[in-house]
Amino acid sequence: MERVVLYTIVSTKNQDVERQITDLKLLAERNRYQIIEIIAETISGTKKNSERPQLNRLIELSKAKKIDKVLVTEISRLGRNTVEFLKVVEELSNLGVSVYAQNYNLETLLPDKKRNPIAQLIFTILSEFYRLERETTLDRAASGRKIAIANNVQFGRPKGKVKSYEKFLSENKRVQHLLKEGYSIRNISKVVGCSDKTVQKVKKLIFNNQVQL
C-alpha cells in the first residue's frame, strides 16, 4: 500500500481547504492509498520554498522515507513561482517521492520510480503559464487602479454604508451557530441561503476578533 500526503494550500485564512481535502481523500480511498498526513498551508503560492513551513514539513517526511507520493488537486498548489515549483519537484523526485496532480491525472514518477518525462514537461509549461497569468493579472489591476485614481474614483464602501459589527452579527445568528458547530463555509451558505462571503465575514468577526466590516 502506497503511503501518501494530501497537500492543500490557500492564500488567505478566509478561504476553505475542505473541498481540496475531500477530493484528495476520495482519490486516496479509490486507489487504496494509506494517508500518512494531511498538510494544509495558508500562504501565497508565490512565496519562496524556504518561507513555507508546511512545504518544509512535506520535505521532512520525504527525507525520513515516510511517504511515497504527494497528492495535490492541481500543480499550482505546490507553487506559482516556476523556479520554486521545479525545485520542489526535483527534490521530491530525488527522494523517490512522486507528485500526483489530480486535475491532469499525471504524476512525476513512473511505477518503477523513474522520472516521467511527459509529466515533467507538462508541469513545467503549466507552472510557467500560471506565473505569467498572475503577473498579467497584477499588471492589469495596477493599471486599472491608476486610471481610476486619475479619474477621482473613490475606493471602498460609500460613506454611511458601513454596518456595525454588532448589527451584522445579530442579523446572522444562525451562521454563527453553525460555525461554532463546525460546519464548513460552503455548507453553511447552502443551508442558510447566503453567500460564502457573508459566512467568511461572520467567521472573521467571531474568531479573529475583527470589530468592523
Automatic annotation (TrEMBL):
This is Recombinase family protein. InterPro entries: Resolv_N (IPR006119), Resolvase-like_N_sf (IPR036162), SSR_resolvase (IPR050639). Coiled coil: none annotated. PROSITE patterns: RECOMBINASES_3. Residues 3-152 form the Resolvase/invertase-type recombinase catalytic domain. It comes from Rhodocytophaga rosea. GO terms for molecular function: DNA binding; DNA strand exchange activity.
